[in-house]
Amino acid sequence: MADLRQLALEYVLGDDEAKLTIIAKDTARELESAPANTNPVARWVEAVQPWMPNRDGDDETHGAPDWTARAKALEFLSRTLEYLGNDVLKPSQTKLLVAFFGAMFDVDHKAGILASASALRKITEMKAFQPSSAIDIFEKLCCLKDDFPRQLSTTRLAVYKLIQSLLTSEPVEKDIKGKQGPNYQFLLDLLQLCRSERDPDCLMVWFAILTTIMTKYAPSQETLDEVYGTFKAYYPITLPRTAQSKVTPDDLKSQLRACFSCNSSLAKHTFPFLVGKLDQGDGVTVNVKIDVLRTIKACIEEYDKPDETVIPYADRIWGSLKYEVRNGEIEDVIWATLEVLKTLTTRLKENDLRDYILNVTRDCVGDLSSAMYAGAAGRLLVSVLSASPVAFVQMAAPTVTHIKESLRHPKSITHSQDLYKIIRVVLQTRILLMELHTDTATQKDFAAVDSVFKSLYHDIFSSALARGSKDGPSEEDIKVATAAVHGAGALVCQRAAIAPGEETNDPLSLLPEKTCSEICEALFQIPLHHYTTHSSEAGVDELINETTEALQKAVVAHPAAFATTVSKFQSLLKSTQGSSTETTVDLIEGLGPLLAYVGCSELPKNVGYGVFQFLSLSGLFTRELSQSVAAGTSPKIWCALMAGLENTIKYYGDALTKTDVDREAAFNGQESNTFDADAISSKITSSYGSLLGLGASGSVEYGDLKSTLPITSAGAHQTYIEVGYALLKHFFSSVTTGTQTLTLSAEFNGKDTASEQQYLHMLGDLASSFIHELSEVQQVDLKIHERSLDLFQTTVKLPVGDAMAVDETWEWLVNTPVNALFYGMIESTRPEVITKIFQMGVGQKLIQAGVSPSSSFANATTSSISKSVLSILANKHKLDGEDDLLTSIESIVTTGLTQTTTHASERIVSSLAVAAGFLRRYTGAKTKPLVAAIREVPKNAELGFSLARRLEIIVAPQRFLSKDNYATVRPLWLQKLYFDLVKPLLVGATDREATPLSRASCGIAVLVTMKHIPFSIYEEDIDQILRVAISTSQTLGTGPDTLAALTVIKSILAESPDKVQDHIRSLITICTSSFSTTATHTSPEWLPATAQSARASPAVVAQSGKLALEILAGLPRLFESRHLLSYVGDVDRQLSIACGHRVREVRMSARTARTAWSEVN
């Protein structure tokens, strides 16, 4: 049996927290395990008697008491209780402990409060606690009297939590109600005890206690008034800036707000008090106003019996709050006010609601004719009518009638805009309310006022839309039309009232079909007019954007209008056949993406209509594009039409992703080995050939295809895949010709090579975006690996398995202009599908052809695409298993350095492109020979300097090597590359035994790669890197190498400016020479002539200057003035000159830097 006195002594004398916890746990175990006849609880309490006051409370008998020791002794008891089981103590023991700890509130106001409150809180949670003891505890607590506010906040918080735990206990609640309810004398004493509380943490609990009392204890009105007076004194509450608390001002406000709203009997106090606060006018701050409004809203929401608590104050609330909107300027206050009025409307019923609505309508509709107050009146009206269907039905007619009347004689442009915005919101509110309330009675109510909306188009919208599409529109015309288009679109979206059981995928429109079509035509006429007339008036772009949004919503609600829109666009295209290329291109580039967004960015409820719109618009672009290519028109027109088709497929694909379609599902649940991808084209041609422009031409209506169109999202997704595949086959097969080796078709005659190349690239992008949306199973089903090789041409014979004829060559697929198509096919292809190309034996040959071309590229674009293709192939297949191929690439790099031809240099760069893909995926031992070979590239005397910059290709971020396009990127590949490649080059850049050219080349290689490596990777080598960056800049002068050096220096400055402090002089010299127009630089004799042209590039000079100025602008912020004072004069002169630089971005940066340096003193 443990000695409890010894444990108590050890606890009082101890100061190690872990040891104190062990002592408390040991004591608790002793109390739980000791025999009952040993009376362990009594021994436990007696163990602390040496530190307790005398029985008569006299502490002066033996001198001044040790308050610290007494506090520790009581803490010993309290902490032991924390680890004691709830069923250990008996009722008699809990009663004695309550008496013991309760006495501390009376006889010891210095050491006993915190521990006693904590102990009592634990005791109240025990099974043996008697609810009748709660009153005794409250009485003892009130003995603290004026000493309570003097306690530390942590002590007071413990007391508040004790009170809260007692009052939230159901047995205690029942006992107190039976003994003291409803006047509760103990509560009045507690109110007196806690009246001066100011600590935020304590107030949070105190307010919660008051809320509990008012909600659970049903106090008398007199007692309730006392409670109200207590928390009202804190309103409005704020949090002192010096408060050391995690409680936020919003937390305090919310807790106090709960006090106001928890008891409906407080209504006679709260509403007059809160509204009176608002009526104080300018004396109330914005934050207080918002708090008051939120409190009023909470009271309106929470009070029960609204006919007794809310309705008597409705008129006063409305009379005060309407001015917060009518005369308001602060948007947050206005929104909070509107929320209160909307909430108030929801609590009123029948005659009270009718009277309130009449009051609101009477006060507001007159203001609609005023330019100054129309906007505010509209917001007030909408806040009330949007609260419920009843309010909407009663207010819609007078509101709409007055708006129509005011629009006949608007006072200003702003007045017209405000009125059209109001009617738009009213229409949108009707849509929302009809969707939320579908019962028969409500639908009948809506039908009763529908007549007021049916004439809106001809009454107010038709003229406004016409102003947006007339010749030479004024500023007023454009602004009014911009405000009106969304309302017109919302009018098309209105649905007739439908009773339950009559739901349909194609609900009846409120307006006649003819009117809906007329509105859509008027909306489309706006962008059509401005694109055909090339309008340049201010605000036209905004008008077109807003009209497009409105038309899109209208077409979703009324899909039939889209066919007319497409037909208009097609007729317009035919009418431009004799026009200039620029006119045609501008028209297609303007209206093509617009139609794609309007018709395909969202699926209507009738999925079949959505599919038809996608097919019809895709077919339009396909037919026009095929005819344009056949007619030999400018490739610029091809590109514009292809952009329209790309947007159509993209928007439709995005719309499908918003549905619940499982993208990973295979077609029709079939296995990939039984799916016939070749059947897609024939299926699509037979079903939708005329519509898509893949078969016989002819007019096709929705009704003609209604039975064949899918009716579910899953069916729409499958159609999307099949149509996309068929279109790819159509276009790919039309741009190439040949048998086993494909070339571009005759239409690519080289008259506009840039546009032709752009068209091929766009066609590749179309393939990439389509393939990106396919799952791995779907890519396998569609045999994307085979189609990537034959480009949908049946004349190309593919190997079966790995059986490939020796004389078969695939160089044309990588090194000729058709590589743009191949790139598009593989960019978003999954790695498992790319592997199939290697399993056929073709992938290896493609890489070999790419790194050892037998002839030069047709142009720089073809060369660039070839390297991208090599990176993709090397990344998406496990090349670490292709030993011969890796050895071949390593050999090309090694042997290429022994040659001095441009051809050899190109082969090495192609090998670097392979490394860019390979090293992202694999970081094992097999990378070492290739990395070792690359390390030698910058050191080569002949090619090293020109190839050093090309090492950037290995680490530069590329879209086709991103995870979004299913590339494999190891998490730590950059760290591995830094230590294996960059760090050895850093050694070479500082090797004094190497030639100056070798050091410079290694330095360039380090800097161009470091631009893309995170600071944390090279942090330990900052000093060396800084020296290399400064040396390179000083040696080579302004150019791409200095630009790379400045980029690295800027990163170091951002992360570790102290490392740059010793190099300030050199850094300032480099920066000023980078943007100076008078600075001269003499190139070293050993510098190759090839460096001169790069340095002379105006774009590089501008970029270097801008970056240098940004660095200079940051120096005064990063370093103390004493480090910069000696350079102020020279820097100011250079910055003054730079403020007149020919490049605007450089001028702006110079002004910013000059401002920063002006503060150096």
Structure notes:
One of its GO terms (biological process) is DNA repair. Belongs to the MET18/MMS19 family. InterPro entries: ARM-type_fold (IPR016024), MMS19 (IPR039920), MMS19_C (IPR024687), MMS19_N (IPR029240). Its main location: nucleus. It is found in: Nucleus. With 1161 residues, this protein is an all-alpha fold. Among the domains are: 176 residues; 85 residues; 202 residues, Alpha Horseshoe (Leucine-rich Repeat Variant), CATH 1.25.10; 182 residues; 120 residues. The chain contains 58 helices and 2 strands. The protein has a two-stranded antiparallel ribbon with strand order 1-2. Strand 1 and strand 2 form a beta hairpin. The longest helix has 24 residues. The two termini are 77 Å apart.
E-strand count: 2
* Overall average residue pLDDT: 87
Specify the biggest β-sheet.
Answer: 2 strands, antiparallel
As a whole number of angstroms, the C-alpha radius of gyration is 41 Å
The proportion of residues forming helix, as a percent range, comes to: 55-70%
Alpha-carbon distance between the two ends = 77 Å
The helix tally amounts to 58
**Structural class designation:** mainly alpha
Strand order, largest beta sheet: 1-2
> What is the level-2 CATH architecture name of the domain at 349-500 and 508-557?
Alpha Horseshoe
Instruction: State which percent range the strand residues make up.
Output: under 5%
* The level-1 CATH class of the domain at 349-500 and 508-557: Mainly Alpha
Domain MMS19 N-terminal: 66-325
Domain MMS19 C-terminal: 749-1070
Keywords: DNA damage, DNA repair, Nucleus, Repeat
Family: Belongs to the MET18/MMS19 family.
